[in-house]
Fold this sequence. Notes:
The structure is a homodimer. Chain A has ten helices and 13 strands. Chain A is an alpha+beta fold. Chain A folds into two domains: about 35-145, CATH 3.30.1330.10; about 160-325, Alpha-Beta Complex (Phosphoribosyl-aminoimidazole Synthetase, Chain A, domain 2). A seven-stranded mixed β-sheet of chain A has the order 8-10-7-11-9-12-13, sandwiched between helices. Chain A has a six-stranded mixed β-sheet with strand order 1-2-3-6-4-5. In chain A, strand 4, helix 3 (about 105-120) and strand 5 form a beta-alpha-beta unit. In chain A, helix 4 packs across helix 8 and helix 6 crosses helix 10. Chain A is globular, with a radius of gyration of 20 Å. Chain A starts with a helix and ends in a 17-residue tail after the last strand. Mean pLDDT of chain A is about 95; it is low at about 340-344. The interface between A and B is large, with 80 and 80 residues.
Amino acid sequence: MTSLSELGEFGLIRRIAESLPPPPPEVIVGIGDDVAVLRTSGNEYLLATCDVQVENVHFIRSAVTPFQLGRKIVAINVSDIAATGGTPLWALVSLVLPPDIETAFVDGLYGGMRLEMEKAGAAIVGGNLSRTRTDLVVDFSLLGKVSPGEILLRSGARAGDLICITGTVGDSRAGLEILLHPRLAVSEQSRDHVRARHLTPQARLQEGRVLARSGLVHAMADVSDGLVQDMRHICRASGAGAELWADELPVTQECREVSTAAGVNVFDWVLTGGEDYELLFTVAAESAHEVQKIVKDATGTGCHVIGKILDQQGVRVMFGDGTERAFPEGPTGWDHFAGMKKDS
Amino acid sequence: MTSLSELGEFGLIRRIAESLPPPPPEVIVGIGDDVAVLRTSGNEYLLATCDVQVENVHFIRSAVTPFQLGRKIVAINVSDIAATGGTPLWALVSLVLPPDIETAFVDGLYGGMRLEMEKAGAAIVGGNLSRTRTDLVVDFSLLGKVSPGEILLRSGARAGDLICITGTVGDSRAGLEILLHPRLAVSEQSRDHVRARHLTPQARLQEGRVLARSGLVHAMADVSDGLVQDMRHICRASGAGAELWADELPVTQECREVSTAAGVNVFDWVLTGGEDYELLFTVAAESAHEVQKIVKDATGTGCHVIGKILDQQGVRVMFGDGTERAFPEGPTGWDHFAGMKKDS
């Protein structure tokens, strides 16, 4: 019997996918991706994704307000839709509430969800309420749409493509460090900046739409599991590999300050921290500059070129001093089961 | 501050619905119903529903196999789609797994889901895996479709309509009694029958389609919360009331046997037990016989006439001895929060 910790989260997903019958032809992208892409009788693809926040796994109730939690659960789902170049439409919210939850908590949670849903132009249309004896769970399912001519998938990266990313990576992991170690000696400004990026991440929805409409992007994913892990998702889906250039990775001064105070190599957070919700995408080398300009002009967001797609499988990171770090198969970012105790 | 136990599950749903902005016009039915009905660019409505199974709330792990749990989570969602007259298409599965879960559990769970999904002609297209410190949660979101000319909603019941139900009610609650009190003195046959109806309920998918196509049904819902509670959902949505005839309620001999052994009035289970997953619907008095025949001929399932729709609000049950039981506002079936301890 293979244990869940041996399989890991992505091994278990593969096992599940292999156990199910082949999907019908209307399923353009099914199990294994962040977003299902579905053909309906209409002229646009339907998108469907879900993401969960579990108490004491994804958040600690004392360290987050219900309003922040509501904002975050929406943003992380909107980010999945954004990574396809799509538009969010409708959501179902499944709440599993412990006995000590009060009405004010539910009010705050929905207040946060409402704010982010309005920003995304989407509506909550249903859901479910249940109780639990123990930890709170918020499961959020989001539907969206995208034109078949514009959709961006993980697959599609080609050897020679340049790898780009919106914004900066690492702040969210630095923010988590502040929550775990509130007495860390860092400036108030850095503390506030990284904590906000962890607690209320922002989906790159406009940027995703602009990138999709540009017609220049070959493959795209959002950085939720961690830069290397999400890069690997693109590589696997595209049958390619990638080289990331450490010196080109966009890291904020605030993230660097927190990592120094924590005595951690900032690249650990940047490469494997996760929850950045930036868009990671590949373009032909000759269009990189144009894409950067298009995104900047339309949204004000900067994109950095951080590596290139290779023929050979695997993801490796090249450092400025000439050293190289390879990431072999196996969990390198957020993996729900990798840390679990081995069963028999 | 109003407590969740004062509000109750349905009060909380109303509170949430009122806190959200008015839905856009594409949302035909939104929060408050079991199924969201959504207009897309295609020629059919999109249906979206979700339902959850929480360990130690909806099931006890020692009393159910993972295969049974997988079957049930699919069936209860398919039942919601069936109650609109629609067809299930695609599902997302969100699994929140405690540390002691083994791969075999996940295999069994997906095996059960696969069986019921294949019966329903639908496919699992994605989902999410997470861990938890404590109780297992399976959240299941199901999408479907229905023709705008055929859709059946809770609203639409008219005074004078007869109220009909497929199959029988009460068995599921009797099955729960067997799980809670395994030593109850009942025959093996009754035990097996009611336990199966509790653990592996069957959605009335074919019956729902036939009823929708008949063009004769005014309003429909599935019996998940309990007969009186779901009747009340139809009445509220239709601005009407209902009278149920106790002597006409279809109850199996097996259910009666278990209720007698348990020393319970069988009507308590029949009226408020819930999880029957039968279809409850209203038709004009003159078409009741025709509808019964159509369903019987197409599916083999019997439908019973169990009451009538009234002008005045509320649900009351008339017994054969001339007595009457009124069900005032407030929880009368499964309510997640009604039993919770009052907070301050």
